[in-house]
Amino acid sequence: MKLFHKKNESEQPTEAQKAGSARVLKNGAYAAVLTAIVLVAVILINLVIRALPTKYTEYDISTAGLFTLSDTTLNLLHSLDTDVTAYYLGENGNEDTNITRMLDRYAGETSHFKWEQRDPVLYPTFAQQYGAQDATTSSIILVCGDKSVVLDHNTDLYEYDMSDYYTTGTYDLRFAAESALTSGISRVTSDASYVLYQLTGHGESELSTDFTDTLDNSGVSVESLNLLSTGSIPEDASVLLINAPQVDYTSDTIDLLREYLDNGGALVVTTALTYDTPNLDALLAEYGMTRQSGLLVENDADHYAAYYGPAYLLPDMSVNDITSGVTDGMMTFAPVSQGIVTDDDTEDITYTTLLSTSSNAFAMQDYETATDLTQSDSDPTGSFKIAVAAEDSATGARIVWCGCPNMFLSATDQSVSGGNSQLFGSIVNWMAGAENSVVVDSKSLSAEYLTVPSIAVIGFGLLAVIILPVACIVFGVVVFILRRRR
Hints:
Layout: H1 15-51, H2 54-57, H3 71-78, E1 84-89, H4 97-107, E2 113-117, E3 139-144, E4 147-151, H5 153-157, E5 158-161, H6 165-168, E6 172-175, H7 177-189, E7 194-199, H8 209-217, E8 220-225, H9 227-230, E9 239-243, H10 251-262, E10 266-270, H11 278-285, E11 289-291, E12 295-297, E13 312-313, E14 316-317, E15 334-335, E16 340-342, E17 349-356, E18 362-364, E19 385-392, E20 398-402, H12 410-415, H13 419-432, E21 443-444, H14 454-485
Parallel strand pairs: 1-2, 7-8, 7-9, 9-10, 10-20
Antiparallel strand pairs: 1-3, 3-4, 5-6, 6-21, 11-16, 12-18, 13-15, 14-17, 17-19, 19-20
Helix pairs in contact: 8-13
């Protein structure tokens, strides 16, 4: 009798085994198809998300809202009807992510704005065609048709806020990309053009690039004009500038200026305390404005630069249509000034104060012989006007007179991070009849630290080191005992 037999090697699988194999194969096919569908769905979802504007996929959680666009910018972008291209001059792999994120935000708001990267290593001559060969890395070139503007990374997209420097000795690094981009787009898409002529031949101060660049961004070009040699004022003169003359103008020149104003002209004047210009002063007196004798000195420590002294004024700026192009909170610097007095009874003339001292200031009469800036009994006290605008409703003439000869100098402007040049640009836009676009505030990059009181530090320390560990041990012991009793 055989206890064992050899299994038949050719034995076929049973029906149950075949059914099981079919189910496994079927389930595997379903799993493979489902996996493929999920992979395709994930890829498609990622493609859709990547195609969405960054405002829907990235949230601005920065303290200062660095990448949140203002209403001014949104209104400009939504009203664009021409194409603007921004070329980012950054090296591949070394991009400034703050800048690229901001460009993404702009591109996400309108189909008329797009940006492309141009690596200076791969495209070494690209920037030259726009005159940007000296632009720093991570700068931007905005192009619209045949117009272009260069936004430098170090001077336009970032700026230093020196407003607290005179009181605390510290400054604040600010992110100004939105301000620069918005004003740049406005410039390259604007069809309006204006010309400011700065008079020469009488020792006037020439505008530096701080001011000419500001005007250029607003579509205002700057030309020089010597009335002694030309004998006439060009017809395209939107604004004339007389910037701190050291010599008075002749009666013939004054007649030209008078005729220009009678025909609705616009004139910006700065004068120096130490230079007499009686003919020019007489012309300004026809519009009800005269000089306040004496050097303006501040008694209010918040209204002068502490490092220099009370004659280096940090005046108050009035809020009005003329100053609307100045960033909120921006300061101006007016060292060595004298006041401007207005005759409010002058017929047809409307006056607007632009800059003024505090009510504690005084006009020092004997400044030429004084050894210090101490107020005497003969020095008048009060709030003095440093810059005044006069508008003649009969002729349309507009005049701005500033009693500070240093107002429109580069060193003065840089002391307040461009506040003076912003004011000048805002004044010129008003005088030329151009709309002042509201300036977008730059945003601080300085971290705001959370200060925890020492008592709170001790309390948190006890909680973390002693109370919570002890509580956990007690809880564990209780749970252990309860389980042991079951």
